[in-house]
Amino acid sequence: MKAMILAAGYGTRMRPLTDHCPKPLLEVGGKPLIVHHLERLAAAGMRDIVINVSYRAEQIIEALGDGRDHGVTITWSREASPLETGGGIRQALPMLGDAPFLLVNGDVWCDLDPARLPPSLGSDLARLVVVDNPPHHPGGDFHLTADGRVRESPEPRWTYAGIAQIDPALVADHPAGAFALAPLLRQAIAEDRIAGYHHPGHWVDVGTPERLAELDRLLQD
Q: Is 0.90 surpassed by the pTM of this model?
């Protein structure tokens, strides 16, 4: 299975740290955030990685090159301006192929071993990884049934981890350009075509300088 890391955003919530450094290159635990993803994917045997870039793209490309230093092969999907999650995936489909792939938001940190995820989606369009709700998002995002189906309700609801297995068909028919992935996921949930996987381990949405600092302390201990 190939993987795609989303790394094209402006990192607005992380300013001023991202004024001169793209968010994926912010260091945590002694290495850039995106390198943690590359190393975890490589350890799981996932070597073919697509990364979309836009804001300060050349800095990211120069830092990671073709990926060989991290045990992977990187293909770059350049966006003149960020295409949002759905649009970024849609543009990268020629690089990803027709088979399901692993999608990873570049601004999260998670100790999930991707090899633990079921290898097949069957007739589903996606499998979302969900985690326990963090203090800053107590209401969660989605309900997970006993048989692993994702629903919008009822409670309890888990938080979407920003990690998912995606069938390219989820976005393939959408017109190219900037668009969000969430509405397509919600439509597929309504059609009962989204599975879920609860990861009980550690996860951080590295969305603010404070959370970046907290994660850095955790990884340095």
A: yes
